Protein 1
Amino acid sequence: NPKKPLKIMISGAPASGKGTQCELITSKYDLVHVAAGDLLRAEVAAGSENGKQAKEYMEKGQLVPDKIVVMMVKDRLSQPDSNEKGWLLDGYPRSSSQATALQAFGFQPDLFILLEVPEEILVDRVVGRRLDPVTGRIYHLTYSPPETEEIAARLTQRFDDTEERVKLRLQTHNQNVESVLSLFEDITVKVDGSLPKEDVFAKIDSALSNLIEQKNTTMLAT
Ligand code: AP5
């Protein structure tokens, strides 16, 4: 029973729930989660030359230049695990040049998921977001509180998660989203990301099962 690995992109405004949905998607579908923001934060934490440069842009809520981001993502997608299991690309591409660069390397998604969330909800989500450095899990003080006192005590906040900075990140997102969307129109599924996370996942889950069915049918036909 040979399977074609899934190749998915997930996009949306800052704090629209990309990372949260990726946790749910990977636990069911076992795809390799490749998050551009996480790869960049790892470079920043490692203190590499790319990391130092990237941090300047991230602090201003601007896009990190292609010369850093494109190869970083391309290298991760080229690893054997991404190829074997399939991938879930989170927060990339954020511009048409990033999209074209990836296509030139032969990476073509099956599905482009766009999470739609009204702006007034986003700030609230960012300000209450906390991360568990031990498990990497995403929490929210109100919507997804930590399960135990022990976890609560070790939670951290991202350096760009202030109200002021999220507004800048949102501006950058709004400037670029249309140009990226127009390139993936025929494979885009728009999902209402303002619903509770389980309901958002139910929509994504059904889009993914349809896709798998479709892929299997085309395989039998060829
Ligand atoms: P990145 O790390 O990608 O940040 P972002 O796009 O701003 O998105 P977030 O990670 O903030 O949010 P999310 O959508 O994952 O939401 P989450 O699930 O955590 O990028 C950071 C920076 O890196 C950029 O500004 C840029 O500088 C740079 N960068 C990244 N990619 C780049 C690229 N391709 N090119 C150039 N530069 C790049 O959820 C948020 C909160 O809400 C959590 O607390 C969560 O618990 C809660 N929540 C989630 N879903 C729900 C729900 N349904 N209901 C209630 N609460 C919810």
Note: The mean pLDDT is 95.
Protein 2
Amino acid sequence: MKILLARSAGFCFGVKRATQMAFEAADSHDGICSLGPIIHSPQLVKRLEEKGVEVVRDVDEIRHGAVIIRSHGVTSGELADISDRGLETVDATCPFVKSAQDRAARLARDGYTVVIVGENEHPEVQGIVSYAEGAEVVVVGTREDAARIPARKRIGVVAQTTQSLDNLRDVAGACLDKCQELRVFNTICDATSVRQEEARELARKSDLVLVIGGFNSANTTRLAQLCREIQPRVHHVETADQLEPQWFKGVETVGLTAGASTPGWLIDEVIRKVEGMSRES
Ligand code: F3S
């Protein structure tokens, strides 16, 4: 069997950075926790737990020590709360997310109504909203949502980092009809779109696609969905021991990809297992 591995499979820049920071912080601190799981990979979260990094849901649960902030950031209120309690912050917010927060803050200071293109409930979006302090803030998912915004003199637009450029363009177009002055910041990071395009290409070239990553990882699940639109033989697995030999019957080319929150060692284990099965067959 031939194995094709997607070029960007696995960690994106921000997740790699956050994970490194978490492991380094675990080595240099006694009491340490992360506010929510550091990434959507149960296997990596377990490794960090073994190194003493506890996962907490709320700042109220933290009594002492240091707090790791995840790559998609937290609200400005949560950050202030952490510092008011005398806790140390290990801020692993991805620089791309930080940039979206900073743009929103600047638009708010300059008197714009701030439109954020993204998913209202997502922690990254809630974080960005919190930085647009003092401004009128509207979160919109689509051009149709944006069409319902009341007319305003000045509108400033930023996007959740994982949005598509097409959607940002659509929303910005709808906002232009609502105001005299429009400012748009492209705060999208292309890690998501690059992985999705590579996954589609892989599905076109393979008889079977394996998508590796947490079942709780939205970006991994989305990769599996996109592959299925092209190739019905797609399996989403978290670890190598979930592979089943009968999946590979009659398969000549196996495509392999992984979400932005999938550690390299899990990808390597899957590759080794597929190679082993290939030798045995
Ligand atoms: Fe950062 Fe983009 Fe990853 S915003 S966390 S590099 S998906």
Note: Residues 12-15, 71, 94, 96-97, 161, 189, 191-192, 260 surround FE3-S4 cluster (CB under 6 Å).
Protein 3
Amino acid sequence: LAIAMAQISNRHIDLTAEQQHYLGRVLRLRQGDRFIVIDGQGHWWLAQLQVMLPAPSPHAEILEAISVQNELPIEVKLWVSLPKTGFDDLVRYCTELGVSEIVPVISQRTVLKPSLQKVERWRRIIREAVEQSERQIIPTLVDPISFVNAIADSPDLRLTTTSQPYICVARGDLPHLYDCMSRSQSTCDSITLATGPEGGWTSAEVEMAIASGFQAVSLGQRILRAVTAPVVALSYVSAIWET
Ligand code: SAM
């Protein structure tokens, strides 16, 4: 069944022009056809199209709630230093892989200057990827923040025993993220993964992160692109917590 995201009120769904286009023209649904509605906050419903264009008030009705659980069993926050290009794909792939929150970070070697329009586009891409990957929860994409402020705003990083922050550093002598996460699998319910820009983290940034509770980890012997590293790190999370 096709999946669409909507605001639900009283079993009635008013369809926006964008949703009408998606359901009617892209998915070719007709009056009486059923589809799945998600609200992005953990709920799914089976819904039925009641009236479609060119009728005056296109809408759908909720038929029944559906119980689904496709989310990762652990919260994953991704602090990703904005790459020069490729952030659209990065956001899409990390949403498919189950990320809970994306924090676009401006580190010392970040080149891209994020605009409000870009942030809105990334949030739209996330919603599309939630529909495509059949997730229940829409990951949060917070406004871009400097790495220094992200650390200052997270005083709880080293206070809880059930959450662990990792900073990925392209150095082969560090412990591997997979091994570190495997060891904490049974005790950890939240992790933060920080990945750097094309030029990498500065050593001052790595030291500051470690002083704030981050563990420096490797993703293997090869240097991954800034847009590849978060995807690889998230696939390890899935491998550990979902298999
Ligand atoms: N020459 C840069 C350096 O020395 O850091 C390479 C940066 S790499 C293109 C971009 C980011 O991806 C890094 O800052 C790191 O967060 C992550 N990364 C790439 N390969 C990695 C690896 N093998 N282990 C850990 N992190 C890696």
Note: Residues 168-170, 195-196, 198, 200-201, 218-220, 222-226, 229 surround S-adenosylmethionine (CB under 6 Å).
Protein 4
Amino acid sequence: HMQAWFMDETSGEDQRLPRHCYPKELVSPDYLAELGVLYWRLNPENYENDAELKKIREDRGYNYMDLLDICPEKVADFKEKLKNFYTEHIHADEEIRYCLEGSAYFDVRDKDDRWIRIWIKAGDLIILPAGIYHRFTLDTGDYVKLMRLFVGEPVWTAHNRPQEDHPARKEYIKNLVTEK
Ligand code: KMT
Ligand code: NI
């Protein structure tokens, strides 16, 4: 499964570095599921013809799809874009990303507002729920090819933190089971 860990937030290191705590504190898929983060491992070589992907898309209504290459050479205003991606935000809808090549980090906030770093690699399909605070960065490989999925006409609008009054945020908090 995907590797995920609590981040060391005290060091002002490069955002592309893993930033493990010392000692390392790994995060289980079950804990991610409690936060509403879902995950599948698929065959990235077969994405155009994959019955499993097709089923997920049908079950969840993901009729929109596009592909995105993210690296310094291919993205206009690369620095600005990456800065925006790494600014903590929410969306009114799920964020669905399928990694086809390369790798990258999604950071999500847990129930206690700690950062969890999720390392996605080729074959990882991840769904972040609407209303979860998150951010994104490339790792030191500096390259990722992502499939973006969406229900209907895509809306990519990022609402930067704080968003405690946003309906998607309120709904997310309401559904979060906080007892441990
Ligand atoms: C977003 O909302 O686009 C992100 O969180 C960045 C990851 S996908 C390029
Ligand atoms: Ni986002």
Note: Residues 51-60 form the longest helix (10 residues).
